[in-house]
Amino acid sequence: MLIPSRCYTCGEVLADKWIPYISAVQNDKNNMNGSVNPEEDLLELKYINVKNPKAEKSIEGKVLDELKLHKYCCRRMMLGNVHIISYLS
């Protein structure tokens, strides 16, 4: 899929945030402590405990906060985009 240039809902420009988003997520996932098998870390699910409802943000969520993408429509554009261009070339 192509890099999203603008949010479909609100029209905010997203193209300038795509490369920093991808590189920051890849760097953070590569620098995870104690990761024996990185493929298992990508599939790790975290659940919210009912007794302690405070949930820890995912790496993607933290990076989106750093890029100041707080609207859920813009976050959807970044999270929902499948980065398959590397597989096609």
TrEMBL record:
Q: What is one Gene Ontology biological process annotated in the Swiss-Prot or TrEMBL record?
A: DNA-templated transcription
Q: Give me the Gene Ontology terms describing cellular component.
A: DNA-directed RNA polymerase complex
Entries under Pfam families matching the protein: RNA_pol_N
Q: What InterPro entries does the annotation carry?
A: RNA_pol_su_RPB10 (IPR023580), RPABC5/Rpb10 (IPR000268)
**Claim: Zinc is one of the keywords in the record:** yes
Question: Molecular function (GO) terms listed?
Answer: DNA binding; DNA-directed RNA polymerase activity; zinc ion binding
For the keyword Zinc, the answer is yes
Alphabetically sorted, this entry's keywords are: DNA-directed RNA polymerase, Metal-binding, Transcription, Zinc
Name recorded for this polypeptide: DNA-directed RNA polymerase
The organism is: viral metagenome
